[in-house]
Amino acid sequence: MASTGSRSTNITWHEGHVTRPDRERILGQRGVTIWLTGLSGSGKSTIAVAVEGELVRRGHAAYVLDGDNVRHGLNKNLGFSPEDRTENIRRIGEVAKLFTDAGLIVLTSFISPYRTDRDAVRALMAPGDFVEAYVSASLETCESRDVKGLYAKARAGQIPEFTGISAPYEAPEKPEIVLDTNRQDVAASVAQVVAYLEREGHLHAPSTEASARG
Amino acid sequence: MASTGSRSTNITWHEGHVTRPDRERILGQRGVTIWLTGLSGSGKSTIAVAVEGELVRRGHAAYVLDGDNVRHGLNKNLGFSPEDRTENIRRIGEVAKLFTDAGLIVLTSFISPYRTDRDAVRALMAPGDFVEAYVSASLETCESRDVKGLYAKARAGQIPEFTGISAPYEAPEKPEIVLDTNRQDVAASVAQVVAYLEREGHLHAPSTEASARG
Questions:
Q1: A140 exposed, middle or buried (CB, 10 Å; 0-12, 13-18, 19+)?
Q2: Is B125 in the A-facing interface, judged by CB distances under 8 Å?
Q3: Which pLDDT does position A17 carry in this prediction?
Q4: Helix, strand or coil for residue B66?
Q5: Does the CB of A28 have a partner CB in chain B at under 8 Å?
Q6: Worst-scoring range by mean pLDDT, A129-133, A142-146, B96-100?
Q7: A186-A191-A192-A198 Cα dihedral, nearest 10 degrees
Q8: CATH code for residues B33-207
Q9: Is A3 a catalytic site residue?
Q10: CA distance B62 to chain A (A)
Q11: Is the pLDDT at A14 greater than 50, yes or no?
């Protein structure tokens, strides 16, 4: 049996609805969405999973939303038309918002190539809750990795509207975080994201004053 | 500043993907969805919020999904046609599944009148992850409460297809929990749900053996 750490019983809320800061104090952190965006093969999923691992190792509640648990579930009734791509990102944004409200540190890993779609998610959330992390790698780098063989298929014309080949990728203009995976390894990107979370106060419970304001 | 409880550092997972039991050990609980179903006015939301409060007071990570945070967000592009009602419940089920996978104790508060829709959500989840809680109150009781004045409007014909008046409510056949709010107060229903969670092991971290199996 793994032992469970003792919990704070110094909870300040009274009768009535639980608030987000109440949940955050239980978790010892402040909820946030780290929205990873970048080309296929840029390293989004690898970084998302590695950050989740580092956070959980430190005792934090983190969760990855990615194609594996979203495209075959919540968004399985969406295709790849422009409208469906926008709806895909919108739903993911709404779910990330709920997780953030629950106090979790959410990492989303989707190409999300369109600026307007990402900005719409940012607009859903309170300032500071949405953190855009641009996973930057050149098309050449991504294509040379081609872990899933998708670029080869796209070049052969077997995948229509493939981001970077036959469909645009609109890089973020003012991302909170840039992870340049041309130049740095996964560990460096993980350290960069964790340092951001630490600096912005997400790895500690909100203060009682913050709660009173919130 | 509220003090934060120390966390377990006795985490057994190794390099690689974080698993659900890893997250559950951090949280000191096992994820589950308590799916509250019942007529408008039966007490679903009151019970959901009160259970969340009790769980958070005990140091657990709990979250309520209800009309307030879902109908105006994730499902704001759905209406009340039969197809949209089914899609509404399907999406909520998929989101509850994600929260459960994240290790949280989720309470959903939706009338969800159709057995097939609820059974479809149950089918999405692993056995034991979906707990149907039938919030049972007679139509007379619900109508006499009529907190939002909806029954009066429905009787006046101002709300078409209102569950219990002009649209059916299909009671669960084998719910894991029945909360008879004709006979018991909110505190009794909360105690009943918490006792269920305790009995089924959701209020403790999974054992290492369970993790090895999972």
A1: exposed
A2: no
A3: 85
A4: strand
A5: yes
A6: A142-146
A7: 150
A8: 3.40.50.300
A9: no
A10: 8
A11: no
For range B83-95, the mean pLDDT: 96
Comparing A128-132, B46-50, B77-81, B169-173, which segment has the lowest mean pLDDT? B77-81
Percentage with pLDDT > 70 across chain A: 89
What amino acid is encoded at B168 in this protein? Answer: P
User: What does the mean pLDDT of chain A come to?
Assistant: 90
Contacts of B94 in chain A (CB under 8 A): 73-74
CA A54 to chain centre: 15
Q: What is the CATH number of domain A28-203?
A: 3.40.50.300
Choosing from A112, A138, A144, A166, the catalytic residue is A112
Check whether A8 has a pLDDT greater than 90: no
Cross-chain Cβ contact B56/A26 below 8 Å: yes
List, as one string, the DSSP characters of chain A.
--------------SS---HHHHHHHHTS--EEEEEE--TTSSHHHHHHHHHHHHHHTT--EEEEEHHHIIIIITTT--SSHHHHHHHHHHHHHHHHHHHHTT-EEEEE-----HHHHHHHHHHSPTTTEEEEEEE--HHHHHHH-TTSHHHHHHTT-SSS-BTTTB-----SS-SEEEETTTS-HHHHHHHHHHHHHHTTTTSPPPHHHHHH-
B5 near A CB under 8 A: yes
CB of A17 within 8 Å of any CB in chain B? yes
B158-168 pLDDT, tens digit each: 998 899 999 99
Do the Cβ atoms of B61 and A27 come within 8 Å? yes
From chain A, the residues in CB contact with B70 under 8 A are 98
Domain ranges of chain A: 28-203
**Any CB–CB contact under 8 A between B9 and chain A?**
yes
Q: Which neighbouring-strand residues pair with B178?
A: B134
Q: Give residue B12's pLDDT.
A: 39
ipTM confidence = 0.90
